[in-house]
Specification:
D-Maltodextrin-Binding Protein, domain 2
């Protein structure tokens, strides 16, 4: 196969694969549905493989299409990186970003890897501390941006909620520590909103507990859970395959959602700050009609 692949066709292909619909993809790439169908016919001719099959009303990617999808994403990413690297208008500089280590292992790869591709000349300095510390550092200008647990900061005054997910009781899938009459817990420090939610919920139903492990580090909580030493409270996206979610059947009350907020220093108003802030929102935002609050 000597024919060159068309990046516009690949962009449309990715949109169909992600939406599962030629119609929705056409809206996303701003083309007519017939133009999208023509593009996919030509793309199939170029690769010499069928990349979509009909599955009811949906368009399902074939095994060959799945292989092509990986190449397509890499090609578009490299194209964007190349254009940015040679652009005379490329943004450069340093942004200081803070977040707690509750989020670092799962959010940093999502945010930084894709941002580095499109903005290779921006350096990001990352600080990991408790949400309340990140909040103070952003307010006084020592950090430009912060990703924090909203309830651990001054609620209602600072930040924009960009993600919300349920908090869950978790234990090791290979232990039964949750069956003890006095429940051992791995929790954050006393000013942690997750800790407050957990202890108030257990007190309300009359469940005996003891705080066995206290740390501001999510890794410490996870370690205690995986060793079968305690039950912890974690957001849904932090779960691993070795964890067991404990619910009403096991006698655990429902917990509130965890709101993640983006903080921005009043002094962080340059293009580099705008670029990273917008990227974080796009990468993490799952709040419809987000209850944004203006930063002071």
């Amino acid at each position: 196969m000597n024919a060159l692949l068309d990046l516009d066709q690949l962009r449309t292909f990715i949109a169909i694969a992600e939406t599962g619909s030629f119609t929705r993809a056409a809206e996303q790439v701003n083309k007519t549905q017939s133009a999208v169908s023509m593009q996919m016919r030509r793309l199939e001719e170029r690769v010499g493989q069928v990349i979509f099959v009909r599955d009811g009303r949906q368009s399902r990617v074939t095994d060959a299409g799945i292989r092509l999808l990986d190449y397509a994403r890499r090609m578009l990413s490299l194209n964007a990186e190349t254009i940015m690297a040679f652009s005379s208008d490329a943004i450069s500089g340093t942004v200081c970003l803070g977040l707690p280590d509750d989020y670092a292992p799962r959010l940093l790869p999502t945010v930084l890897a894709s941002f580095a591709t499109t903005h290779p000349n921006i350096e990001i300095e990352v600080t990991c501390e408790q949400s309340s510390c990140i909040h103070r550092r952003v307010q006084d200008g020592r950090l430009d941006l912060g990703i924090v647990t909203h309830g651990d900061c001054h609620k209602g005054k600072f930040g924009r909620i960009i993600r919300s997910e349920p908090l869950l009781w978790v234990s090791s899938a290979h232990h039964s520590i949750h069956c003890q009459s006095t429940l051992p817990l791995a929790l954050g420090t006393p000013n942690c909103s997750w800790r407050t939610s957990a202890t108030e919920a257990l007190t309300k139903i009359g469940r005996n507990y003891r705080v066995a492990y206290v740390s501001s580090s999510a890794a410490a909580h996870t370690g205690a859970v995986m060793a079968g030493l305690a039950v912890a409270v974690l957001p849904e996206s932090a779960l691993t395959s070795d964890m067991r979610v404990l619910g009403e059947r096991e006698g655990f009350p429902e917990l509130p959602h965890c709101d993640i907020a983006l903080l921005r220093s009043p002094t962080a108003q340059d293009r580099i700050h705008n670029a990273l802030a917008a990227h974080i929102v796009n990468a993490l935002d799952n709040v419809t009609g987000s209850s944004g609050i203006a930063a002071e």
